[in-house]
């Protein structure tokens, strides 16, 4: 298990030109604590510049934290970064992290050497990984001739070359087509559930996070603002219910009639009439009352369902709330 | 120690550098050899021929300036080539976007840099041999060479160049520069380290600086073993001095490199 507590990272950048440049401190991560269990997929969310990549770089020992503690299976990551490196790997979106002048096979071979993977294991592993990312037919082609998505796929294979126990994924599906990202998602699930690896993933595709993550951390401006399962996060943020109702008949009068009947149960109810459906927003579960109201009015229900709030809406809402608090 | 990193890095560099243009590489080698020897010969022809300073043979123990300057220039070529390759390795990784994926791995830095050094040693040696053949008609005289002693001198010198590369490499990574710092340094080495004239001709203060750059003593050692046929036992003091001084460079270089690695990683945004 990975346990990170109160991580903080301050970048020092030099501003301006010439000899007398001013030093400026950028607090990219101000206070992050998180845990990653083996076999679990953890999501790290936040808008651009929230500090996700910086957090991942600290957890992968590319950056040493300015403050805070970091333990991976009881190994002190701040003191023994090399021991951490042996047990992890990281995949970032984009076309970096591979040698363009080498072929796909040579890339994986070289990374296998610097990870000290024994040669007979390595050969088999390279074949498996190339198959996994669908590059087995391109293995002897120089990477510079690859498309963006192919480079990205090779990078994914690179991230698995040392068979890491923990894997960090920084926007891994960026630039991938629908088919490949779907395959990657199912492989990520396989890695966690079948191979018991601990995984941390960041992504701006909420569908992906919702599909994959057992637990989610949301950060904004370098601090953690919320954590929980997808369900917890969405229901906590959206305590009101949303219903969609379609009837056999449709008119303004009918909508008003339903609205009146519901107001008796929940005074805060809002009923909107749009296209051929009626949208109801209420504080409480009113599905019983809703169907009774329709029956009493002699209307047939063609369709009625509760709209589940999406994680995406939760993120937007949360970041906006934090922003408002900061401003006012 | 299984040397996987060393072997892997050598193979990687060979593949990246020479696979694409082997013909260019060969022609390039021959040309550098020719230019180096030609440069040395011109220096002799226009600067020193006839009016060689009286004390030259006293100081150097040889009156054969053309051999003196060819060996000096070729050693200098070696310094430039190996130093460049080693010191440029990490900044190249930075530019190609592979520094982070490299640094994610728990690999041994010493093997990585040695691998880089050895690749360059192999290819530059080929270059030097070509140059020596070209130098024969210009009158280079290696008849007194003590090959055993030279071999030891060569290995000791490699160590010295490695130390210099590590220090230069950390400076380059820190300044993210490959041209200004390297060219300034190489021009300085050329003038100060006794490449084309003995350091004794330098002002006192420059001579002191020359003595603490291991290249100076290394050039001397190579020259003595190749040109005056001195055995290595007579040169033990010189060997010890180079080894000691270079070790200081290697230690400082590795420490600085680690520090500069961290700084370089902090500067990568996104
Ligand atoms: N090397 C650096 N030097 C200085 N500031 C940096 C550096 N890297 C990141 N920052 C700053 O730190 C903050 C957090 O950046 P970070 O890359 O961690 O965000 P992120 O959550 O990954 O964003 P995105 O969704 O855009 O990838 C930003 O304000 C960024 O400008
Ligand atoms: Mg990022």
Automatic annotation (TrEMBL), chain A:
Pfam families xref list? ABC_tran (PF00005)
Which keywords annotate this record?
Answer: ATP-binding, Nucleotide-binding, Transport
- Give the organism, scientific name: Sedimentibacter hydroxybenzoicus DSM 7310
Keyword Nucleotide-binding attributed:
yes
* Name of the protein this chain belongs to: ABC transporter ATP-binding protein
Q: Which GO terms describe its molecular function?
A: ATP binding; ATP hydrolysis activity
For the ABC transporter domain, which residue ranges apply? 7-246
PANTHER family per record: ABC TRANSPORTER ATP-BINDING PROTEIN, ABC TRANSPORTER, ATP-BINDING PROTEIN
TrEMBL record, chain B:
Q: Which Pfam families match?
A: ABC2_membrane (PF01061)
Localization in the cell = Cell membrane; Membrane
Q: Under the cellular component aspect of Gene Ontology, which terms does the record hold?
A: ATP-binding cassette (ABC) transporter complex
- Ranges in a coiled coil: none
Q: Which PROSITE patterns does the UniProt record give?
A: ABC_TM2 (PS51012)
Task: Pinpoint the ABC transmembrane type-2 domain residues.
Answer: 28-260
Membrane topology is: Multi-pass membrane protein
Instruction: Tell me which InterPro entries the record gives.
Output: ABC2_TM, ABC2_TM_bact-type, ABC_2_transport, Nod_factor_ABC_transporter
- Record GO terms (molecular function): ABC-type transporter activity
Which key words tag this protein in UniProt? Cell membrane, Membrane, Transmembrane, Transmembrane helix, Transport
TM helices/strands, residue ranges: 21-45, 65-84, 112-136, 148-173, 185-202, 238-257
Question: Member of which family?
Answer: Belongs to the ABC-2 integral membrane protein family.
| Identification of the protein by name | Transport permease protein
Species of provenance: Sedimentibacter hydroxybenzoicus DSM 7310
């Amino acid at each position: 298990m990975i346990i990170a507590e109160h991580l903080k990272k301050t970048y020092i950048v030099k501003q301006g030109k010439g000899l007398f440049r001013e030093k400026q401190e950028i607090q990219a991560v101000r206070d992050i604590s998180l845990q990653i269990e083996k076999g679990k997929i953890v999501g790290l969310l936040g808008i651009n510049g929230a500090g996700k990549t910086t957090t991942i770089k600290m957890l992968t020992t590319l950056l040493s934290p300015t403050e805070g503690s970091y333990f991976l299976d009881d190994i002190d990551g701040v003191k023994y970064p090399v021991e951490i490196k042996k047990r992890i790997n990281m995949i970032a979106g984009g076309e970096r992290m591979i040698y363009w002048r080498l072929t796909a096979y040579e890339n994986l071979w070289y990374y296998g050497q610097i990870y000290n993977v024994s040669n007979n294991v390595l050969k088999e592993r390279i074949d498996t990984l190339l198959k996994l990312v669908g590059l087995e037919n391109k293995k002897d082609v120089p990477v510079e001739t690859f498309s963006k998505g192919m480079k990205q796929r090779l990078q994914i294979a690179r991230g698995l070359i040392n068979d890491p126990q923990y894997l960090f994924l920084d926007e891994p599906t960026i630039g991938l087509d629908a088919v490949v990202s779907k395959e990657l998602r199912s492989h990520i699930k396989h890695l966690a559930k079948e191979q018991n690896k601990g995984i941390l993933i960041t992504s701006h595709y909420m569908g992906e996070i919702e599909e994959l993550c057992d637990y989610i951390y949301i950060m904004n401006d370098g601090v953690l603002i919320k954590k929980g399962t997808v369900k917890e996060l969405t229901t906590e943020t959206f305590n009101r219910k949303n219903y969609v109702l379609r009837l056999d008949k449709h008119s303004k009068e009918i909508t008003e009639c339903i609205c009146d009947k519901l107001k008796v149960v929940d005074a805060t109810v809002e009923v909107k009439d749009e296209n051929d459906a009626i949208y109801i927003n209420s504080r409480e579960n009113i599905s019983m009352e809703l169907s009774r109201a329709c029956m009493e009015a002699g209307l047939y229900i063609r369709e009625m369902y509760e709209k589940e709030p999406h994680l995406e809406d939760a993120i937007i809402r949360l970041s906006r709330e934090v922003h408002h608090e900061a401003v006012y | 120690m299984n040397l996987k990193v060393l072997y892997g890095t050598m193979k990687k560099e060979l593949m990246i550098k020479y696979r694409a243009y082997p013909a260019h590489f060969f022609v390039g080698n021959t040309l550098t050899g020719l230019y180096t020897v030609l440069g040395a010969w011109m220096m002799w022809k226009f600067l020193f021929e006839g009016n060689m300073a009286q004390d030259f043979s006293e100081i150097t123990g040889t009156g054969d300036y053309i051999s003196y300057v060819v060996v000096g220039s070729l050693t200098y070529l070696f310094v430039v080539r190996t130093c460049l390759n080693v010191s440029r390795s990490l900044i190249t990784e930075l530019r190609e976007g592979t520094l982070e994926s490299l640094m994610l791995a728990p690999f041994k830095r010493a093997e990585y840099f040695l691998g880089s050094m050895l690749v360059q040693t192999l290819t530059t040696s080929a270059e030097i041999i070509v140059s020596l053949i070209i130098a024969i008609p210009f009158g280079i005289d290696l008849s007194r060479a003590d090959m055993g002693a030279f071999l030891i001198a060569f290995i000791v010198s490699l160590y010295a160049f490695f130390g210099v590369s590590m220090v230069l490499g950390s400076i380059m990574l820190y300044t993210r520069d490959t041209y200004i710092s390297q060219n300034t340094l190489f021009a300085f080495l050329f003038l100060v380290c006794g490449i084309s004239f003995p350091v004794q001709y330098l002002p006192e203060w420059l001579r002191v600086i020359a003595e603490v750059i291991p290249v100076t003593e290394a050039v001397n050692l190579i020259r003595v073993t190749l040109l005056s046929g001195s055995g290595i036992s007579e040169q033990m003091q010189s060997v010890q001095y180079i080894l000691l001084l270079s070790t200081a460079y290697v230690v400082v270089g590795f420490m600085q490199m680690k520090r500069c690695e961290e700084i370089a990683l902090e500067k990568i945004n996104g």
